[in-house]
Amino acid sequence: MLNNKGGAKLWQQIFEMQTEIQSLFSPNDEFFGYFDPGRPSTCQTALAQLERYVAYSGPFDGVLAFSQGAALASTLIVHLSQLDPAGQTLAPVFKVAVFIAGGVPVDPDLLIHRGELRQLSGSVDGCLISIPTANIYGRNDTLWPGSSEQLSELCDEKAKAVLVHDGGHEVPGSGTSKDALISTVKVIRRAVDKAMHAQ
């Protein structure tokens, strides 16, 4: 985990841009991220730590991830699928994934072996996430516009459920309508049902 100590300009910019959560924190509060997007070595470390944790503490039925956490979790899903396609089809690391305001995964092979960050794209890389997913994001996301759509394009069309709400970079219900929260629960339920029926 990285923290905001040391006055890192990037973290201050991210904090300032997340208007949806500003009311929850003071500018002097400490906050954390999984990695610094400007430093590939921190992304390598985060992916390796998550892979070790999942191997040691799993198996898991699913993963629920927000923003940068969704980018990291989806990168791990792609990585493990590339390492063992048959094994991840028969016994995936997660049976379902819920991505809320999800960031874009990076090419795990380039990250691990060359320390390079290349965002994955459905138009270039095709479908890389075959497990059932719930992709939930706001049409008014000003923090990372388009990133959730890009993540959703990497998910199997037949296995994904998508909700686009009127909010921004947020978990529905934290500032959006009651209807958005109810719709979120329904989309997650559809993804979980798909995962249960796939067994």
SSE order and pairing:
Blueprint: E1 2-3, H1 9-17, E2 32-33, H2 40-57, E3 62-66, H3 68-83, H4 85-90, E4 96-100, H5 108-114, H6 122-125, E5 133-138, H7 147-153, E6 160-165, H8 178-198
Parallel strand pairs: 3-4, 4-5, 5-6
Antiparallel strand pairs: 1-2
Task: Describe the structure concisely for a colleague.
This protein has helices spanning 9-17, 40-57, 68-83, 85-90, 108-114, 122-125, 147-153, 178-198; strands at residues 2-3, 32-33, 62-66, 96-100, 133-138, 160-165.
Parts with pLDDT < 50 across at least 5 consecutive residues = 1-17
Mean pLDDT: 85
Count, helices: 8
Give the strand content: 5-15%
Shape: globular
Which bin fits the share of residues in helices? 40-55%
H-E string: EHEHEHHEHHEHEH
Quaternary arrangement of the chains shown? Answer: single chain
What is the first-to-last residue Cα distance?
A: 34 Å
**Computed structural class:** alpha/beta
The main pleated sheet reads as: 4 strands, parallel
Identify the strand order in the major beta sheet: 3-4-5-6
**Rg from Cα:** 17 Å
Q: How many β-strand runs?
A: 6
